[in-house]
Amino acid sequence: xxLSSPLVLDGxxxxxxxxxxxxxxxxxxxxxxxxxxxxxIGAAHAAYVRAGADVxxxxxxxxxxxxxxxxxxxxxxxxRLFGDSVRLARAAADAAAADGRRVLVAGSVGPYGAxxxxxxxxxxxxxxxVAELVAFHRPRIEALAAAGPDLLALETVxxxxxxxxxxxxxxxxxxxxxxxxxxxxxRTRAGQPLADAFxxxxxxxxxxAVGVNCCDPDEVSPAVEIAAATTGxxxxxxxxxxxxxDAAGRRWRGTARWAAAxxxxxxxxxxxxxxxxxxxxxxxxxxxxxxxxxxx
Length: 296
Hints:
By secondary structure, the protein is α/β, with parallel strands linked by helices. It contains twelve helices and twelve strands. It has a single domain, classed as Homocysteine-binding-like domain (TIM Barrel), CATH 3.20.20. α3 (38-51) packs parallel to α5 (75-95) and α3 (38-51) packs parallel to α12. The chain is globular. The two termini are 21 Å apart. Its cofactor is Zn(2+).
């Protein structure tokens, strides 16, 4: 994959679905619509393609076999739903080919804490061993990889322990990955130094990029510099709007501060996969594509 020039990632899938009148709550979050209304997911992906995204991230972030089972979906059907998340993104990406564009699909592998749906992806430290986390993530990764994404997004990782587990779980899947942490105060959410966390991927050729996502935009520049210096790899950066998620109140608080112009500094520091996460919609991604010199 050529990362000599920046690629534009999409933005938050949940907020685009909400803008279209679709709820994405509960333990499956956006993955619930793989069951209830897959066409809505396809339409949201298409909106990001029109905005200029070069990479679409699938609706599998909060998906799990146990979560689907609690919705009454048996295991084989759940595996197909993981595959559907890739196929829906691929259909939107392929539609861009008529305009001579290549849009990539990244299969989203969210952290264990996201599946708990209690905000613990912003804390980490679940009390599980690396082996237990590998056992949880491996079937999810296998199901996504079988559907043929271009890469996997091991994303919103709060803890270096879980990062180690995710990298182990992805061994032999045949698909390159990026690894991105959610951070606060210049550390992982579990409190580890970022240099130590990024170093886990430094010698791993399967890892195309390392970086941060689902964090305050102000955290990005220093994290990009540390990631680039520690690993020598391209960096991925896609923060939230700057608002803060109130897990108890189930709502966002604060003021949006995400700005497309900030991406120029991130690019200059080594970021090559740049986008937005929660509360960053297609309009902001269109601005980003323009700022990064997208000719479309």
